[in-house]
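pls read this protein:
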Amino acid sequence: MRTTLTDRLTSGPVAAFLALTGVGAGVLVGHGGLDTVVGCGIPSDSHPSRTAEDWITNADHVVVATPTAEQDTNRRNFTEGPIQYQTDRAVAFRTDKILWSSGRPRQQIGQDFDMVSAGWNVYRDSGERTKRTTAAAPRLEPGHTYLLALRWVAGQWTVLGEGAAVPFDHQTVGEGEWCGRTLSKEDVARGERFSRKDDHSLEKAVHGQGEQAVTRELERAKTEAQARRR
């Protein structure tokens, strides 16, 4: 069955809330830069990333991580149009906890790691800096905590795709930064009422819960995958 853009943007409770508040429509006019870490807009997954089985199949590690610093990188100048230049962000993370690792990871994860994420638009006339976003997930900003399914690709860490970067402030799935906005438990609960009923994503299965629920779903997916191979 074909998945439409609307389906993808409202598949989970967080996406549904932002669609309700008009954020979904607003971000679709932008174009992303790098796809190594996703943000908010038209989804483009490098690997399947929605379900617990997607995570254990495609990720090297699932971690709780907190951005500790960011720096502009990959500046691109424009000679025409309202935007003078764009940047990405080199984001440094602290590994707070490893929740799951592949039996044969492509790379071990350290106490700290780096990724490239969406950065900024800087406007020619005003000099105003506005947040850039790419596909439907968090921007990954200092001051927040995230649940990340990471894969080592071409010498760097990336998230699998839109479903592999989940807000995790206060050790709560779905609470925190998403598309540059900070969402509360109430925001996520509102989105849950409007998200697709057939959504089987890990985010929806454990939203509002903590790391034990995430670990339980990953172990369940591992057990079920092993049983199918027998």
About this structure: Helices lie at 5-9, 13-20, 23-27, 52-58, 185-194, 202-206, 211-229. The chain has seven helices and nine strands.
